[in-house]
Amino acid sequence: MSRIGRLPIEIPKGVDVKIENSLVHVKGLKGEMQSTFSPDMAMKIEDGKVIIERPTDQPRHRALHGTTRALLNNMITGVSTGFVRILEVVGVGYRAELTGSDLVVHVGFSHPVKVEPPDGISFEVDTKAKQIKVIGRDKQQVGQVAANIRFIRPPEPYKGAGIKYLEEIVRRKAGKAGKTGA
Question: What domains can you pick out in the chain, each with its CATH number?
């Protein structure tokens, strides 16, 4: 029994949802998105809520039920409020800055690394807190761009220097013990 799939999706004010067969088009304040879902899932709009129903209790349909609901909910949330992923730059001399809409990261290389935002993504940089905000309407795209930025210099285990997610906990290693000779 899918608990996620059975939950109706509330449509917020200012968001327009159109369902045509298996194509769903969502339009809101932050932009518009469209996606094609499995034709097995029945989607309908009732009383300002989107309801998704599955045809049978086969494992394939049960899996699609929750997935379809989650993806559609992410689309509706994305066009109404958007998604944010916060990265933290840790290290002596490590910093990030905006040049126009591009992100420039200085993280110990001989050259600065420039990251251009794809369509639908924007960056905000807090230089005092050394934080980078990746903002967009597509949850998957926001997460992928944040992962690509983290991949430039992942946090190392000895000092923790690098780019990490704000909520990420870096497991630290002890390092060398040092000499104890006479």
Answer: 3-80 (3.90.930.12), 83-165 (3.90.930.12)
